[in-house]
Amino acid sequence: MLRLDWATCACVLASLVLPAPLALADAPVKGEVLVILAKEQAGEIDPGLKKLPALQKPPFSSYKSMKVLSTTDVELTSDKAATVALPNGRTLQLKLLERMPDGRHKVEVSINRPGKQDYLPLLTVIASGEPFFVAGQTHQGGTLVIGVRVGSKGKN
Questions:
Q1: 49 — phi, psi (to 5°)?
Q2: Higher pLDDT residue, 122 or 110?
Q3: Are 42 and 64 in contact (CB under 8 A)?
Q4: In this structure, are residues 89 and 95 in contact, taking their beta carbons and an 8 Å threshold?
Q5: What mean pLDDT is reported for the chain?
Q6: How many Å apart are CA 25 and CA 5, to the nearest integer?
Q7: 67, 44 contact by CB (below 8 A)
Q8: Domain ranges of the chain
């Protein structure tokens, strides 16, 4: 019969239990960045955008045409920001600040200044897997509306 002392049992149990939570904490969080050109002039709205409730409410409901310019998958980790090039020459940056115990993620969204490498923080969001939208960058006679989804409802 094999007998182990308490210290050996604790080391064996720790090696079985600890790696999984640590690996989960470092696992990338998947996300998506949607770049839309929105205009106040009447026109077409991409069909997929009609299903997004946030775009049907102010201030986004004032746009009468919306065209998806790009969709980019991103992965966020605690040690590396994700970046997405915008069509107006700027770069969007997403930083994972915190993984919340309830599965949500605290994310900082920022954008670089024209012709500069530094980033100006736009906002910090607690992301729940539902997309959130920011707007304001001008482009081709309209406004860039940027949709960001981090994680998915109930999972990374």
A1: -75, -25
A2: 110
A3: yes
A4: no
A5: 82
A6: 31
A7: yes
A8: 28-150
